[in-house]
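job 3f2a | input accepted
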Amino acid sequence: MRYLYLVFFYSLFGYSQQIRFKVKDSLTNKGIEFVSVNFLNGYGVFSNAKGEVYLDLNGIENIELSHISYHNKTLKTNQIDSIIYLQQNFQSLKEIVVSKKSKKKYYKEDLKIKKNDSYAQFGTYGYQIASLIQIDSSNNSYLDEVYIPIEMDEVWMKVNRLNSIENSIVRISFHENVMNYPSENAIIDSENILIDKKILNRKRISHKLKEGILIPEEGIYCLITFLGKADLDGNLVLEMPLYKQKYQGKEIDFIKYHPIVIPMNLNVKSDPTYSRCVFSKDLSFSRLIPTVAVPAKYQGEEKKEYMQSRFSPNDNYSINIGFKYYKYE
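job 3f2a | predicted structure (329 res):
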């Protein structure tokens, strides 16, 4: 079953100030791509390929800048200059040691997508999905390639009378399994994938790693993050995550949503898939659940109870990522 989940809230009124700035490496003076700019109010954006950021400061008092390869920085919005420098974090990534043995044997676990699957809402700024990759015998096994299911949200397309969608960018990273949750630091450099019509037609992202990752017995997490829309050249579009529209005579801020979704399976026996938004105040991961269309008459606790009534708390949803790995034999 598919669900459509529309989220909205009342806007903040006041003086609006629009600014642009660049985030640069303090040593190289080069712009840093895909820096997370957290508004610390549940929303945020990412920098583009040049390190540029566009902000509408209405209602935003502080921002936090973070990137896996740099130290975090928090600023008040009245302290923002045209250039913000970040210092490199040289210990953010772990060194990968790959055996020099000559003979490799490859194994493959393909996607296992069932018909009429539920779908995970994905196309909102900073939304993340974490799926565990684990094999029965991980001795001397290295992850080589991953296959991630992805589709257009056909219901959203039909409701909004859209014939096509713009390109978008997602980030793929791999993290250690720490007490059954993904660690915050990536094992190797994350990579950014352009989602275009070809990928959506194939209904999968096929991503080959630059270096093999040793798969421990407890497995590793593949973390997929939605970064935003891309222009015709494949660069991230600079825009705020909200847009204003009148609703029942009032001006409302709606969350921007890019209509791409990831199929998930209901499988009580499998390890759960987790999700979160990197801009949320609470950065803990939660179990993935289907998106639910909530009637407008339900608010507060009634809304929460209605959502909980649509699925069992014992249901365990997972995204079955396919992958290829090799062993030295």
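job 3f2a | The helical segments are 154-159, 197-202, 300-309.
job 3f2a | closed
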